[in-house]
Amino acid sequence: MTSTNDIAAAIKAARRTLKLRQADLAAAAGVGLRFLIELEAGKPTAQLGKTMAVLNALGLECDLVSRSAASARRGKP
What we know:
The protein is mostly helical. It has a single domain (4-73), classed as 434 Repressor (Amino-terminal Domain), CATH 1.10.260.40. The chain is 61% helix and 0% strand. It contains 5 helices and no strands. It has helices spanning 4-17, 22-29, 33-40, 48-57, 67-73. α2 (22-29) packs across α3 (33-40) and α2 packs across α4 (48-57). The longest helix is centred in the N-terminal third of the chain and has 14 residues, at 4-17.
């Protein structure tokens, strides 16, 4: 993932897979509904702590890797 839109799409897809409404996920993560709506829209200034709470509520984790390592995993030069 290289953009806020990528993260937003992953969060939205995971929420839909779990058949959660935005309000339900916001409550489970302890964030406001407005925050979640903006996060799923790809807001670039979303707070990291709250974003991590949403990821945790969805059972997702965030791993940071160097671009060169990510490219190698995808088989790109």
